[in-house]
Amino acid sequence: MPKNILFEDTYSHIFMSVTILGIESSCDDTSAAIIRDGVILSNVISSQKVHEQYGGVVPELASRAHQQNIIPTIDAAIKNAGIGLDEISAVAFTRGPGLLGSLLVGTSFAKGFALARKLPLIEVNHLQGHVLALFVKQSPDDNNQPEFPFICLLVSGGNSQLVVVRSPLDMEVVGTTIDDAAGEAFDKCGKVMELPYPSGPIIDKLAKEGNPKAISFSKPSIEGYNYSFSGLKTSFLYHIRDEIKTNPNYVKENLPDLCASLQNTIIEILLNKLKKLVKATGIKQVGVAGGVSANSGLRQALLDYGEREGLKIFIPKISFTTDNAAMIAITGYYKYQAGLFTTQDVAPLARMDIR
Q1: Residues 193 and 67 placed together within one structural domain of the fold
Q2: Which residue in 64, 161, 190, 289 has a CA-CA distance of 20 to 30 Å to 98?
Q3: Reading across the β-sheet that carries 19-24, which strands appear in turn?
Q4: At what angle do helices 200-207 and 255-281 cross, to 10 degrees?
């Protein structure tokens, strides 16, 4: 990654405290956050409701909404933090992965803000940010963060990965999805049940009323630590199709059991690979991150697993599970300390691997 030598030489030792403005715009949430020395001062998220009627995110509508939201969102984050513009040490932004049009809005604003204020510019990998959300402090004496190395289960709408984290800037993906991600499985199966988008939170709520063992669905047999959810999705679809042939009201009459069984299957798939990796590495610290980490069933299953096996489990606050700028700011904080700055010719990338 290129270093901006000018900014590195000029700014490395000026600020006794490091205050990072983080900007996140990878999908349909515009977010800005302020972090000072690892402690969260503000985290503002502007969500877009327009996509609900389409059953998924519409890229063109998302990028237009980002253009409308980004200035008031950043303004609110700075005001909520109670800081002045001259207190900001650097600007961190999501470079990718994500929707290119959405990323372009955040990248362009970050570059303009940094140029106007003569501030260092820090690019952040969105997936790396999700992992490092576990390190956002609520107060200076908040020490509830993982020790290195730890294993992170990163689960979201577009990603299902197992990551060995050796330091804030040293991560290795040892397992990933070969097709659909866990979040996609929730949403696509939810669509089959005619649930509103996004379906994950609705399935989670309904699952609490159902029997997780009521229905058996297909589980993949994939070597190594990789995931696959396409077979589960097909199994779920075929089960619904076959049942409604004899009972058109099957879904409505069995909705809680369907949700509970689907959720339980997804959790079992996720945890089976995690358990395998923990056993192979002997690592006793485990974190979870990403949008699906908000799922109450997954959170409880992880805590139960940790208690049985003597592991320390780290679960982010709900506000840090979905796309948010706090995770971008904390990643920017660590990269600032390492002197990893970027230049004004940086461009957003739709695809990026953790590195």
Answers
A1: no
A2: 190
A3: 39-47, 29-36, 19-24, 90-96, 121-125
A4: 100
